[in-house]
Amino acid sequence: MRFSEEILNEIDFEKGNGLVPVVVQDFKTKKILMVAYANREALQKTLETGFAHYYSRSRKELWKKGETSGNLQRVKEIYIDCDGDTLLYVVNQKGVACHTGEYSCFFRKLAEEE
Amino acid sequence: MRFSEEILNEIDFEKGNGLVPVVVQDFKTKKILMVAYANREALQKTLETGFAHYYSRSRKELWKKGETSGNLQRVKEIYIDCDGDTLLYVVNQKGVACHTGEYSCFFRKLAEEE
Fold this sequence. Notes:
2 copies of one chain form a homodimer. Helices cover about 10% and strands about 40% of the residues of chain A. With about 110 residues, chain A is mainly beta. Chain A starts with a strand and ends with a strand. At the A-B interface, strand 1, strand 2, strand 3, strand 6 and strand 8 of A face strand 1, strand 2, strand 3, strand 6 and strand 8 of B.
């Protein structure tokens, strides 16, 4: 991917002990697909390959989204937020994003306006 | 707000030491506005009032979004993700979401597909 070295240096990995949360949004539908975490290495792999990589907090390892399921995420754009501690990946999702088989991980509605 | 007690009980506040990240999405434009954090009390206040409340990790206190700036967020819908450790607030944003004056906190593009 084409990226800005200057903006890359503004990412605050320290605040979250080496990790930043990554919001993943579908490029076409604008739906929120999932939230995962990235360390510096996962972000580097994403920038190098154009496919979303994350860091699994439970397995304590780097993972490429869809490596076993085939549900790859091609990353179109990456944004960082104002204080540099959160990323947004805008992706083309192959198949579904959620391990339950749902398209988005946010398939349960907790509440709505009355 | 109308909410499901059953789904409320599935939120995993323990994983993040009492906090869950909240992705905030604009109801009309589908833009991601910001990511903040909620504890149980902030979520309760949001459900009671219909206005977005969060927990500030730096100030260590509950805050109502827009209380000083006037940039309130009326919450239309709340979703939880598959493993119950992240929330999504879909909101009507008054004014702007970011303290910099930008509409969204994700106004800086780090990278794009080649």
